[in-house]
Amino acid sequence: MLDAHAGSGGAALDAEPRVVLSARGLRRDFAGFVAVKNVDLDVRHARIHALIGPNGAGKTTVFNLLTKFLAPSAGRIEFMGRDITNAAPAKVARLGLVRSFQISATFPHLSVLDNVRVALQRPGGLGYQFWRSLSTLDLLTPRAEQLLETVGLHDERHKLAADLSYGRKRVLEIATTLALDPKVLLLDEPMAGMGHEDVGIVAEIIRGVARDRAVLMVEHNLKVVADLCDWITVLQRGEIIAAGDYATVSSDEQVKIAYMGTAYDD
Fold this sequence. Notes:
The protein has two domains: 48-71 and 84-103 and 180-266, P-loop containing nucleotide triphosphate hydrolases (Rossmann fold), CATH 3.40.50.300; 106-179, no CATH class. The chain has helices at 11-15, 59-66, 89-95, 112-120, 134-138, 141-150, 166-178, 196-209, 222-228, 246-250, 253-259; strands at residues 19-30, 33-44, 48-52, 74-79, 82-83, 97-99, 184-188, 214-218, 231-236, 239-244. The protein contains eleven helices and ten strands. It is an alpha/beta fold.
């Protein structure tokens, strides 16, 4: 798709935030079935990028390829200018490419605060060492409380995670993900199963998170995508059929056909 500023002597392009995660010619075969084919993707710093498409479009497979839970059959992936095509999942997470489910399994019988303190052990070099003294964990309390303030959970910090509503548990998962200090945060359907009020809360949290890092998200709620995302890539049968802002992709005929008119009723 042509860039609207392509003829402006490069000034507009120079103003674009830097690309922090990119894929070129990404492909994944499963026993002769092509799940992802020739996917090119650029995720930019301080931008929210949505990956959308009908069921079976290949969105989760692309996520798995980017975070190295699947190896690509072809193509190249770069993160912060580094080739990570053949890197292990743990390595790319340490580099700062973090997918929400990697550390989103909260401990139900720990408090909200302790869940975040446990997550903070990794970037602090403590490595989930549960046998360490409480005084050692206490050193992490100020940062944990700051993260909980960021996501609006500070007043519930002493509650057990098990006692949170579903929507608030998802918010806690985002807080524990942020504890790893990601440079790029990948969120797989962060609004799934939420009520209207929680959707609004989480959308504002994601907007705040994206002020100083890139966010790539798979999301089926297109009202959220329209309101929240700076750039949208649309997949169908493993291939990109459209990319651009919401106005661009929502008016694309291939996108309308792919959703068969149902996308605009969500």
